[in-house]
């Protein structure tokens, strides 16, 4: 009879704590997330949120527009992706503070427990 090996959990970092610490930013209640089709909670990493905010100083940029671009591209990628829906790569173009377009290579992760998280791959 083989013995089942159960891994020992060394530590956990609950989503609620990450939100409280500011590591994650909840965008679930924004009109942009809802209109783009998110039905489950959705958060972004602080790293990505900082990128979103940095571009707000560029002419013609506002938070609603930047969130719409992010949420729309994320939901479109999720719907079109044929691989494992727990990690969906996608890209969105945003201008930086100097009005220079930059392509953000992002991941949309999904957990049945926590919902969606949008992040840079290095934030994973």
Specify the overall morphology: globular
**What would the average pLDDT be, to the nearest integer?**
94
Major sheet strand order: 1-2-5-4-3
Order of helices and strands: HEHEHHEEE
Oligomer: single chain
Helix content: 25-40%
Query: For the CA atoms, what is the radius of gyration?
Result: 16 Å
Largest sheet: 5 strands, mixed
Domain module count: 1
Poorly predicted segments: none
Distance between the termini: 38 Å
Per DSSP, the total helix count is 4
Q: In terms of structural class, how would the helical and strand content be classed?
A: alpha+beta
Please state roughly what percent of the residues sit in beta strands, choosing from under 5%, 5-15%, 15-25%, 25-35%, 35-45% or over 45%. Answer: 25-35%
How many strand segments? 5
Account of the 3D structure:
The protein has 4 helices and 5 strands. With 124 residues, the chain is an alpha+beta fold. The chain has one domain. It has a 5-stranded mixed β-sheet with strand order 1-2-5-4-3. 18% of the residues are buried.
Q: Could you list some keywords that capture this structure?
A:
124 residues; alpha+beta; 5-stranded mixed sheet; 4 helices; 32% helix
Q: Strands, helices and their partners?
A:
Elements: H1 15-21, E1 24-26, H2 31-36, E2 42-45, H3 46-54, H4 63-80, E3 87-95, E4 101-111, E5 115-119
């Amino acid at each position: 009879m083989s013995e089942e090996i159960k891994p020992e959990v060394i530590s956990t970092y609950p989503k609620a704590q990450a939100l409280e610490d500011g590591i994650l930013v909840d965008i679930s209640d924004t009109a942009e997330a809802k209109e783009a089709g998110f039905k489950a909670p959705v958060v972004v990493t602080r790293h990505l949120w900082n990128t979103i905010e940095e571009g707000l100083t560029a002419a013609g940029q506002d938070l609603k527009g930047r969130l719409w671009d992010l949420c729309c591209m994320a939901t479109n990628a999720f719907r079109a992706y044929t691989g494992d829906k727990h990690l969906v790569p996608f890209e969105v173009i945003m201008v930086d503070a100097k009005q220079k377009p930059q392509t953000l290579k992002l991941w949309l992760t999904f957990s049945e427990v926590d919902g969606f998280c949008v992040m840079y791959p290095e934030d994973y």
